[in-house]
């Protein structure tokens, strides 16, 4: 049985991973070891009948890490940057499964999203690839929804606008969003009690509070509650944000495309908690009916649910709040656009912490455990 080292298992993505692994009974197929960057020697959890110890090991101790057959980390890129090379230099030949982006675009790594690129993953395992990295959440969620169309090579290009949840920037940011909401509400709650409330005065007050120094913006650097932030991650040389750059580069790597599919658009942070949504304009290379497109999309995996393009189905189902905490990948607003018969619109929603982060790496662990 394989020894698996867990790093960053207490953070947000790590906790979702652990919960899913418990739910799916994955811990009983491995011998888990829990590592910590700050609490070496303290007691960790007991989650497996095979577990020898609940001692927390030092996540920077190469000699102990080297004993693992598999390391799965949700600790972030900084940790990977510091530890990964040292381990490989020390001739560690185990499997490295990582939720962070640091090794994603490296030649010897595969971005794992098995419902989409299972063949590439298995081929990689046979060839001796040892680094399997979870994709960017927005990219993985888009591919989960559309990979039927990609696989049939029906897409010329995609223009996308994202509506990304606070969770994508971390737990502190989620908390900050809620605090911002609280500051706004606390400052206007008395006015709202008045049945003759004056909405324009309330709005003006909210604006003044939002721009004052009582609004907590330590993490976002800007107000998200009642507003939005149309920039995510660093600036690239071509004016894209790094999050926007990932759309095309990671998609083509995940699908191992020789002919690159162009994907570009704007990535926007909005005040939702843990589900990313995306509004897509898809240029097809054939004039196919919406009915046919739906069939192709649905066939691809069992988590996709198509929401009929009606007002009531859309507002009641195609929303972050309905998807939160589930593995459902919703896609709706599917229709031909006025631009032309090969242009379709779509709106998709998925949980950023599940299919966007923890689930692909949980499944990758399972694949390695059962196939190597
Ligand atoms: N970069 C994503 C975001 C999350 O900021 O929403 C992780 O893939």
Largest sheet: 7 strands, parallel
What is the name of the CATH topology of the largest domain?
A: Dihydrodipicolinate Reductase, domain 2
Give the ligands present.
L-homoserine
In terms of DSSP E residues, the strand content is: 15-25%
Describe the 3D structure:
With 372 residues, the protein is α/β, with parallel strands linked by helices. It folds into three domains: 3-135 and 357-371, NAD(P)-binding Rossmann-like Domain (Rossmann fold), CATH 3.40.50; 140-165 and 230-356, Dihydrodipicolinate Reductase, domain 2 (2-Layer Sandwich); 171-228, no CATH class. Helices cover 39% and strands 21% of the residues. The chain has twelve helices and 13 strands. The strands form two sheets. A seven-stranded parallel sheet has the order 3-2-1-4-5-7-6. Strands 9-8-10-13-12-11 form a six-stranded mixed sheet. Helix 5 (137-151) crosses helix 8 (242-254), helix 5 (137-151) crosses helix 9 and helix 6 (171-193) packs antiparallel against helix 7. The longest helix has 23 residues, at 171-193. 37% of the residues are buried. The model has no long low-confidence stretch (mean pLDDT 97). Bound molecules: L-homoserine. L-homoserine is lined by residues 136-137, 164, 168-169, 232, 243.
């Amino acid at each position: 049985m394989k020894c698996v080292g867990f790093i960053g298992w207490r953070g947000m993505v790590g906790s979702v991973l652990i919960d899913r692994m418990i739910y799916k009974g994955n811990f009983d197929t491995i011998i888990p070891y829990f590592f910590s960057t700050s609490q070496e020697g303290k007691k960790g959890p007991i989650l497996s009948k095979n577990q020898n110890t609940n001692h927390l090991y030092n996540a920077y101790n190469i000699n102990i890490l080297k004993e693992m057959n598999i390391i799965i980390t949700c600790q972030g890129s900084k940790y990977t940057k510091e530890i990964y090379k040292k381990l490989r230099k020390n001739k560690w030949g185990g499997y490295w499964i990582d939720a962070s982006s640091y090794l994603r675009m490296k030649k010897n790594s595969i971005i794992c999203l098995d419902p989409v690129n299972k063949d590439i993953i298995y081929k990689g395992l046979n060839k001796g690839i040892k680094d399997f990295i979870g994709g960017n959440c927005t990219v993985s969620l888009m591919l989960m929804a559309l990979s039927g169309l990609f696989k049939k090579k029906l897409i010329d290009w995609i223009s996308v606008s994202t509506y990304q949840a606070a969770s994508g920037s971390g737990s502190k940011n989620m908390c900050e969003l809620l605090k911002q909401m609280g500051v706004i509400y606390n400052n206007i709650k008395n006015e709202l009690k008045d049945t003759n409330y004056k909405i324009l005065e309330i709005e003006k007050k909210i604006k003044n509070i939002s721009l004052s120094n009582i609004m907590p913006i330590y993490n976002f650097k800007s107000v998200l509650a009642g507003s939005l932030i149309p920039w995510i991650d660093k600036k690239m040389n071509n004016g894209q944000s790094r999050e926007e750059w990932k759309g095309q580069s990671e998609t083509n790597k995940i699908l191992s495309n020789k002919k690159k599919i162009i994907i570009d658009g704007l990535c926007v942070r909005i005040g939702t908690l843990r589900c990313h949504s995306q509004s897509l304009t898809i240029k097809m290379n054939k004039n196919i009916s919406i009915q046919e497109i739906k069939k192709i999309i649905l066939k691809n995996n069992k988590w996709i649910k198509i929401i009929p393009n009606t007002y009531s189905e859309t507002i009641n189902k195609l929303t972050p709040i309905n998807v939160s905490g589930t593995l459902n990948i919703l896609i709706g607003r599917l229709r031909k656009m006025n631009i032309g018969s090969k242009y379709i619109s779509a709106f998709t929603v998925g949980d950023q912490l599940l299919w966007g982060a923890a689930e692909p790496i949980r499944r990758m662990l399972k694949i390695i455990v059962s196939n190597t």
